Amino acid sequence: MDKMEGSFAVEDMQNVQINIGEIAKEAEEWDQPMGPFPYPTIATLRDWDFKLMNRYKVFYSPICDRCTLCTYGPCDLTGDKRGACGIDQAAQQGRIVLIAVLMGTTAHCAHGRHLYHWCLDKFGDLPFNMGDEILVDAPLTRTIAGIKPKTIKEFGPVLSYIEEQVSQLLACTHTGQEGHYLDFESKSLHAGMLDSLGKEVSDMIQITAYDMPRGDEDAPIVECGMGTLDKNKAILITYGHNLAGSAEAMFYTEDNDLWDKVDIGGVCCTAIDNTRICEGLGHPDKEFNEKYRMIGTKAKIAGAIGWWRKMVRGDCMDCIMVDEQCVWTDAIVDAEKYKIPLIATNEKI
């Protein structure tokens, strides 16, 4: 199909279909030129990765001398042996490293993607504002993607970039793909960069949507531990890494004036995020801001993930709400044993 560029008239044109793609925005003023590699792909920084690995040598201490990742195996890789697909011990260890890195990368990126859709549905496309105390907002997004997000929605292409790269990287671990350990390590470095980027996007979205503090040296101090929970109240423990579900529990408690009857404590990352809600610059939604201002000060940090087993066996909770990540997989077993209701708010668990 022929494409026409530039200005042209559409008068008297018939049977014409006009497709408008992405609309280019006016170029922003930057205090430095665009770098050479926005949105780098797998091979973009490979030469630099090899320079690093030439200086800092890769060392493996295998916990297993076999490969069991495909049906041609299991294959013995001891000594100088190779598997049925031709892979050797070093490459197999590099492959396991890449898979492990991708597990974390996908978890953080999927968290960001969930928050992205959830917050857009709940709040709409909010302006991205980190306030005056932050000199460079979203530094990884700026460095890697070469953009300055102005709204939550502008983080969408960054998440799409991470997801596409993760798909390409995971494909490299399939039988009959990558076969050299240094290339696996280079891909792991790329995945690690994507992981950091995904975590930044997730935090930027929740800081904006839930009006969390930005560089505020006077942000409220929060006490930690099971002793902060009031046993005279019904205690809800929110457990995991994604605040979306627990925030709704806090809003419900506020809407129905139940704080004198309910205590909400968090475990792991969700705990910290709960205590930061609506303590920032002021939410763009004035009604929301007035209703829930400083609600984060009413939540408690019950403990860290390592305290979980002591907590659940210490009779300090009446209900458990899990979301995603950082949740011991036998939490349901403990809940059944001690007859504690458990609510799952995320389809990943």
Please, could you describe this protein's structure?
It is a single chain. By secondary structure, this protein is of the alpha/beta class. The protein has 2 domains: 46-209, Helicase, Ruva Protein, domain 3, CATH 1.10.8.190; 226-344, Rossmann fold (3-Layer(aba) Sandwich), CATH 3.40.50. The chain has helices at residues 46-55, 89-123, 139-145, 156-171, 181-209, 244-255, 269-274, 286-292, 308-313, 331-337, and strands spanning 66-67, 75-76, 234-239, 262-267, 300-303, 319-322, 342-344. The strands form 2 sheets. The chain has a 5-stranded parallel β-sheet. A two-stranded antiparallel sheet has the order 1-2. The protein is globular, with a radius of gyration of 25 Å. The protein starts with 45 loop residues before the first helix and ends in a 5-residue tail after the last strand. The mean pLDDT is 91.
List the helices and strands and how they pair.
Layout: H1 46-55, E1 66-67, E2 75-76, H2 89-123, H3 139-145, H4 156-171, H5 181-209, E3 234-239, H6 244-255, E4 262-267, H7 269-274, H8 286-292, E5 300-303, H9 308-313, E6 319-322, H10 331-337, E7 342-344
Parallel strand pairs: 3-4, 3-6, 4-5, 6-7
Antiparallel strand pairs: 1-2
Helix pairs in contact: 1-5, 2-4, 2-5, 4-5
